[in-house]
Design brief:
The protein has 448 residues and is of the alpha+beta class. The protein is 48% helix and 17% strand. The protein has 16 helices and 14 strands. Strands 3, 4, 6 and 14 form a 4-stranded mixed β-sheet that branches. α1 links the parallel β1 and β2. The longest helix has 24 residues. The protein is globular.
Length: 448
């Protein structure tokens, strides 16, 4: 609620709070100076019934949680890896037994709750999210215009209707809210992979464009401007990579070593980077791990699209770091990504009005223009996929807080990284569910 004033005289609850704890939090804002204050709760009998309805809709049965677990194991077996990278919609699409009660309003929340309880039961662990952005700027202003463009394509009527359903969703969407690929899966009936292909097809048919407008905040003419931040991020990453190689000089692909975050941060401080803390090391090593990774990929090998590193939390202060490509390839990929980031930052700064200085200066461009900046850099000409390089370089600038991406990218894949407990084949047992059942019972009592 963010209100911490001593002299609030009146609190009006416009609806029934969701729990007694929330009610006390809201009412407790009044009269902190010990003088008289009033709290008024506005409600009707329908509000009470609505609370019971919401509670019932959000409840998870044990077989639903087991359905999520079976779906994860199915994806894991298909990918031949304990690591699963998927959104909630993709996980539920593999619930072939239909154990999970589907409700478009609460699916995402209930599925994430199921994952949380599976993690609590040590059947899996959650790692960083892997959000992927897709171009979604339409070249048409109505579904009818899209229908005319698609009528000349050599595609089936069924696929044409699925593409039109995606276009209609994009047309009606609030640009500030964003659309997930899970939403597009639901309205089109396509799988996650086919939704991503559909977005590419819409571009090739002239219905959408990769010239999506993008805005970002940059810093110029102030202490720690964006250029200095980029130089710092580059230097710290290079030092951290040197430290890793020094700690495990003979480490080959698929071999691992431990990285102590506090010790690494101290080493970087000793090298002159006094501001570095363990969370900076975490941010940098996670970014390196993402280099070269394609969405959904977990495999290695020749031509692989796996990341440069695999990270597993060892304890509160350390990661187990597994090398997923040889050192020379890893270093070359990181160097290209940094060069790409430098080219993109130069483009952003070139858009500033002459003489403009300040922190968080808003600039607007398009993905197409950013692509031109990448294509025009001679250092990047040997890169196999400049589009992927642009995406990765852009996200790295944001991750390292060199720039801050704003609005303009509306279709995203909200994937999670989930690691199933190896060699653990048990299900979500009655004993695991007992705590959740007690929670549900307490919620019903609170509503009463």
């Amino acid at each position: 609620m963010g209100i911490d004033k001593p002299d609030v005289r009146l609190v009006i609850h416009a609806d029934i709070p969701s729990s007694l704890e929330n009610y006390l939090q809201e009412a407790g804002r009044a009269g902190r100076d010990q003088h008289q204050a009033h709290c008024v709760l506005l409600y009707t009998k329908d509000d009470v019934e609505r609370q019971f309805g919401m509670s019932a809709r959000s409840r998870l049965a044990r077989h639903e949680i087991n359905g999520v677990l079976r779906a994860l194991r199915r994806i894991s077996k298909r990918n031949d890896s304990d690591e699963v990278i998927a959104s909630t919609g993709e996980i539920l699409a593999d619930d072939v037994e239909n154990d999970f009660r589907r409700d478009s309003v609460t699916d995402d929340t209930r599925a994430r709750t199921a994952l949380a309880w599976l993690e609590e039961s040590e059947l899996l662990t959650r790692d960083e999210n892997r959000v992927k952005i897709f171009p979604s700027s339409l070249q048409v202003h109505s579904a009818e215009q899209a229908r005319k463009k698609l009528s000349s394509t050599q595609i089936s009527d069924n696929y044409r209707n699925q593409l039109l359903s995606i276009v209609e969703k994009l047309l009606e969407a609030d640009p500030d809210e964003g659309i997930s690929t899970d939403m597009l899966m639901e309205i089109s009936g396509l799988s996650s992979e086919k939704v991503r292909q559909a977005l590419r097809d819409l571009e090739s048919y002239g219905v959408s464009s990769n010239d999506t407008v993008l805005t970002a905040f940059v810093h110029f003419g102030v202490p720690r401007p964006s250029k200095s931040r980029l130089a710092e991020a580059t230097a710290v990453e290079e030092q951290l990579l040197d430290f890793l190689r020094e700690a495990a000089p003979d480490m080959n692909k698929d071999e691992s070593t431990l990285l102590n975050l506090r010790f690494a941060a101290q080493r970087l401080k000793d090298e002159g980077y006094g501001y570095v803390r363990p969370e900076h090391v975490t941010r940098i090593i996670r970014s390196i791990a993402e280099d070269g990774r394609a969405e959904g990929s977990t495999t290695g090998g020749e031509g692989s699209t796996t990341g440069s590193l695999r990270l597993r939390k060892h304890d509160a202060e350390s990661f187990r770091v597994t090398l997923k490509r040889d050192w020379s390839s890893l270093l070359a990929m990181a160097r290209r990504r940094r060069s790409g980031a430098e080219a993109l930052l130069e483009h952003f700064l070139s858009l500033l009005p002459k003489g403009k200085r300040g922190k968080d200066l808003l600039v607007e461009t398009t993905l197409g223009k950013l692509m031109q900046a990448i294509e025009g850099d001679i250092r990047l000409q040997e890169s196999k996929d400049l589009s992927k390089l642009m995406d990765r370089s852009l996200m790295w600038l944001h991750e390292q807080e060199v720039i801050r991406l704003n609005k303009g990218l509306t279709v995203f894949r909200p994937a999670m990284t989930i690691r199933l407990a190896p060699e653990c084949r048990r299900g979500f047992a009655k004993a695991d569910y007992q705590s959740l059942q007690l929670h549900y019972d307490a919620t019903v009592k609170q509503i009463h």
